[in-house]
Amino acid sequence: MATASNFLQKFRDKDTRAFKNFTASQFLEVWSHYDLDGSGYIEDRELDSFLREFVSSIVPGRIGEEVVSDSALQDLKEEFMRAYDENEDNKIEIGELAQMLPTEENFLLLFRRSNPLSSSVEFIRVWRQFDRDSSGHIDADELGDFLRHILGEKRKVGEERMKEYRDTILRLFDRNGDGQLQLSELARLLPVKDNFLAKPLLKNASRLSGPEIDRLFRKYDTDRSGQIEGDELAGLLKDLLELTGEDYDESKMLYFRDVIMEQWDSDKDGRIARDELKMILLQHKRLAEEQEALQSGCD
């Protein structure tokens, strides 16, 4: 008989003790149970609780509760994170949990990371493709088209099942509850392979060499025009905004663009040249250092 204290036991087969396949709705139920603070991650004590119940749910009753001792939990966590924590941030994201649980195949495909977008520039182009009305949000109908695109033509999903997928995705990623996805929310569903402005780079921005600046500039100057503009500029802004760890929508990105261009677009041509990019990185580094100092002072 399953104990009320172990949430995961009800999803295991009573005879084999293996997990039964999770539907999209059941996956949402599990995620909501363990992401107690609604942060979009299972981490710290939430992660400890999930791992303890993940293992102890194999054995029914009180015996299962004793399988994972406090001393064994740390070893267990290290093994799990090596296997599933793809970005090595010591947290479990929604897509990573989808790889852990035997989830319905078509729904699982929405989280496949075998072929991630190469950059935020590519992400912005996908965003433009599915934000058909240029509202700055992906509404429910646009999201349905986006999910069909991910699944591909060979994966036929009925309207009722697609509605379940769409509603579940909104429940999982729509953090402000407005019934649509803003930029930062879609970015969590559709992550890119690399943020070219990773923090280790910014911490050494003042010591970036000429070749390093050139290499970074080419990451965004995808058409090799010698300028970062249009979707390239939006991709650069997205990477900068993500370093703050805060949610953002298109209006915030546009405001950020205006601030950046007013201060650093020295020739006022609406584009970013190589030397202007270096000055932006130096300024962002200074602001990050000031924020860290302020937070340390508050602590």
Automatic annotation (TrEMBL):
Keyword field: Calcium
One GO CC term of this entry? Answer: cytosol
Give the top-rank taxon of the lineage listed in the UniProt record for this protein. Answer: Eukaryota
Annotated Pfam families: EF-hand_7
Write down the InterPro entries for this protein, in alphabetical order.
Calbindin_Ca-bind (IPR051001), EF-hand-dom_pair (IPR011992), EF_Hand_1_Ca_BS (IPR018247), EF_hand_dom (IPR002048)
| MF (Gene Ontology) | calcium ion binding
| GO annotation terms (biological process) | regulation of long-term synaptic potentiation; regulation of presynaptic cytosolic calcium ion concentration
> SMART domains given for it?
EFh (SM00054)
- Looking at the record, the residues that make up the EF-hand domain are 22-57, 72-107, 118-153, 161-196, 208-243, 260-287
Q: Write the protein's name.
A: EF-hand domain-containing protein
Q: Which organism is it from?
A: Macrostomum lignano
